[in-house]
Design brief:
It comes from Spirosoma arboris. This protein is mostly beta strands. It has 2 helices and 10 strands.
């Protein structure tokens, strides 16, 4: 009888202890940002704060996923992007075209696709056989801003 009472008491104590754990609800309550998926999952280039993805001259449309970090929207969101002039050696119209410099994240979605067209351009003069194209996210101009750590992605175009 003592043994049964002891096991019953241990069982009651164990059941009572499990109800004392705090429930953690993980909610993102910060500002909404956008970021390049390739920058999140790819190692940065040496001395850079973004990756340089290798592609061939004339590769055509290159699409990279952009993540919306925050609450999904009820309407489509048009996100702007541009070329980082300080880090880009490729020439627009010769090596690439931006296709308008915008893309859309659909309503009720956390992902969009940023596209740039890699043209068949002339090789640079000299011994360098590559040019770099670095894209930078700008956000939607109001409440969606770029994530400062993952707002750039680069393409190294080889000839």
């Amino acid at each position: 009888m003592k043994r049964l009472l002891r096991f019953a008491l241990i069982g009651i104590v164990l059941l009572a202890q499990t109800s004392c754990f705090k429930e953690n609800d993980f909610l993102y309550n910060k500002k909404t940002v956008v970021e390049f998926q390739a920058t999140v999952v790819t190692s940065f280039a040496v001395g850079k704060t973004y990756p340089l993805l290798p592609i061939k001259n004339g590769a055509g449309a290159q699409t990279t996923q952009v993540n919306l970090v925050g609450a999904q929207r009820n309407t489509d969101e048009v996100i702007k992007f541009s070329v980082d002039k300080d880090n880009t050696t490729a020439v627009e119209g010769v090596h690439y075209s931006l296709n308008g410099g915008t893309f859309t994240i659909p309503a009720k979605s956390s992902f969009g696709s940023c596209s740039v067209n890699i043209l068949t351009g002339a090789a640079p003069t000299g011994t360098t056989q590559t040019v770099d194209l670095v894209l930078i996210l700008e956000g939607n101009g109001s409440d969606i801003t770029p994530n400062e750590n993952y707002k750039k992605v680069g393409y190294r175009i080889s000839f």
